[in-house]
Sequence to fold (137 residues):
Amino acid sequence: MTYTIKKHTVFRIIFITWMVLWLFFMGREDKDDQYRDLFSMYKANYTEKVQSLIGTELYDFLVSCKTSLSEGATYNISGFKEFSIYEVRARYFLWPLRSINQDADYELRFGPDREDIVGYKEYKRHANGSIYERVGL
Fold:
């Protein structure tokens, strides 16, 4: 006896298996209110999504920086742990401005650190950080 399996039979088996797994996934226990958070993200506008991703304080500081810095300026941002995901998100948010480590046009300090930087003067103060401009710009 030889069995031949038709294409639509294989498709039905795969589809039914996928549906069973999907129902199992949706019926499992809601851990840490993940479904509530997911639905709130669907309803949120762009600003609210970015705020929940990077935090309200950092978002407010970055918006202030983006509006204050001139187009084509270079900057160095500090106030984060080394290789922090928040620093990467901040650099992504400030694009198309260019981030460099030395001799930047502006120094962005996120957090409570308000110490003066040699060669820079305070350009703008924000509740969550400060912007320093290089002297002689």
In short: The chain has a mean pLDDT of 88. The first strand starts at residue 74 and ends at 78. The longest helix spans residues 7-27.
